[in-house]
Structure formats: C-alpha cells, structure tokens
Amino acid sequence: MGKQAACTAFARLHMGIIDMGTKKRYGAIGVYIDRPRFTVMCRSAHGFSMSGISQSAEYLDYAKCVIETLCAHFNIKPDVHLEINECFPLHVGLGGRTQCALAIASAFLGLNNIRFEVEEIGDLLALGRYTSVGLHAFKSGGFIIETGKDMGVRTAVHIDFPEDWAFLVGMPEGKGLGEDEEKRFLDGVSGDDRTVMEISEKVLLEIIPSLKTRNIERFGKALSEIQELTGSYFASAQGGAFSRNSVDAIEILKKAGARGVGQSSWGPVVYGVFENAGTAQKALGEISEKSKITWFIAKARNLGAWTTT
C-alpha cells in the first residue's frame, strides 16, 4: 500500500454577521458541531482520480479545482486518489464548501509532507471572503467570534461551548445562496451602524458571559435577538429575517421549547439550542412525525478537524 493521509472535518453553524455597516468589516459568530462530517482519504497514485460517496457532481468538480490550485501553488503533481467517505450537502448553511476544501487540502498536503497554515490555504482557495468562521472552526473548533478584517488580517476568539448543551438542527428542502449570488448581494448592500452596535453589544455583554457562566437562557435569548438583527441586513435577499425555506422550521423550534433559534448562514438549515441531548431528543420526538423537514441532534465540537498521515 502506498502513502496515505486522511482528514475529517465537521459542519459549522453560522450564527450571524456582525458588521454590515458603513465600515463593512463583517465579522461573525458561529460554532463547530460534531455532525455531519466530511471525511477524505488521499492515497498516492498516478494522476488524479476520485471515488466514494458524494452529494452531487459539485464535489467532484470542486475537489479537482482544489487539487489543481494546490499543485500550481506548491509546485507538486496531482498524483493522488481521493476517497470521500462522508460528506454533506453544499449551499445549505453548514459550511460544506469550506470544510470540503480544507479537508482535501489538509490530507493532500499531508500526503506530500507540506506544512501549511489554515489561513494561507483559505486565502489561496478564496475561502472566507466575507466571514471566516469556518476557517477558524476547522483550526480550533468551539464557539468562534470572528472579528472581521483589520488591516487585511482576520482575527478570531475561540470559546469552549458547553458540552452538555445540544442543538436540534433542521434541514428544510432547498438551497441557500451560492458564492456568486452572495458576492453580488454583499458587495451591494450596507446596513445601519446602529444595528452593528446592537449586535456587537449583545455578543460582548450577553453571548460571551453566558457561555462562560453556562447560562443557556441568557445565551438563547441573545442568540435569537442577534438572529433577528443580522437577518435585517439580508431581508431584501431572503424575504425577511429568515429565508422563505427556513421560516416554518424556525417556528417549529420555538414551539418545541428551544432556548434560542437561528438560521445558519443563508439557510435553509436552522437550529435550536437545548439544555442537553435529552431535551433535544424529546423535542425531536414531538416534531419529527409532524414535519417533512430532516432533523438531527448535534453537539458542539471544541476541537478542530483532525488529520492523520
């Protein structure tokens, strides 16, 4: 058997952009979760090939693009067989594109004994153009407060998320915005600076203390309020604070007793936070039979992705 390297990355829940005001520094909050996962194995080969499962042809095309970009930048040959054993849909709000790219890069560069920084690969592959929660989550896991661009450099704060809290995640049908649609919208819209200040205040004075003290009621209330505020930035693109595909699922989570609710990125994925897996499971049992939405329970992952060589 030839050389091989593998990487497992995880989904992230994007909980909102902070600054869409006149300075447009973006910044965002979000959390790494333990499911679903993206798992890739890279093996030495003659030329490029790929096997395993995938949600669509998008994965094959994107994987080829990632390998070609890495080869050109690091001056190496695309002699690799990619085997994707686990994956999750792209453009639904789980950060699939970023995690796919970083996992493939990590395994492929590990196979070639090349050291790298996650931020370097992010810039190379044009990841995190607006917010880089997924990049930082891949690196360190946990709850991420990404502070936006400062002199061209992105910084982030990592906070361990309470391990007993659980998310009930819903996946309605449909897709969120793709990269091109997102770029057109974000480049052309700007929010109210007062909203920026409100979101920033809630992150600093409510979200951070509630995570440190493990106060889920305080956290959930602040999260839901931030979601409404950040959703106001994007109402013209998605029809309201939440996308048309997400609205019903948000209401279901509220009625099920979630302490806080939100839409991940452009959706349609939504999530509710519960005290523990037991209360999340009870809520799931009450709603799953009444809904055509795909639901699952996840917990935060306070570690980043892992790579073996």
Summarize the structure in short.
The protein is α+β, with helices and mostly antiparallel strands and 309 residues long. The chain has ten helices and eleven strands. Helix 1 (57-74) packs across helix 2 (96-111) and helix 6 runs antiparallel to helix 7 (216-233).
Shape: globular
What is the typical, i.e. mean, pLDDT? 91
- The residue ranges in which pLDDT falls below 50 over 5 or more consecutive positions are none
Structural class estimated from helices and strands: alpha+beta
Structure explained in plain terms:
The protein has helices at residues 57-74, 96-111, 118-124, 133-140, 179-188, 193-213, 216-233, 235-238, 247-255, 277-287; strands at 4-19, 26-44, 48-52, 80-86, 143-150, 153-159, 166-171, 260-263, 270-274, 294-298, 306-308. It is an alpha+beta fold and 309 residues long. The strands form two sheets. Strands 1, 2, 3, 4, 5, 6 and 11 form a seven-stranded mixed sheet that branches. The chain has a four-stranded antiparallel sheet with strand order 8-9-7-10. Helix 1 packs across helix 2 (96-111) and helix 6 packs antiparallel against helix 7. The longest helix has 21 residues, at 193-213. The model has no long low-confidence stretch (mean pLDDT 91).
Break the fold down into its secondary structure elements and pairings.
Layout: E1 4-19, E2 26-44, E3 48-52, H1 57-74, E4 80-86, H2 96-111, H3 118-124, H4 133-140, E5 143-150, E6 153-159, E7 166-171, H5 179-188, H6 193-213, H7 216-233, H8 235-238, H9 247-255, E8 260-263, E9 270-274, H10 277-287, E10 294-298, E11 306-308
Parallel strand pairs: 3-4
Antiparallel strand pairs: 1-2, 1-11, 2-4, 2-5, 5-6, 7-9, 7-10, 8-9
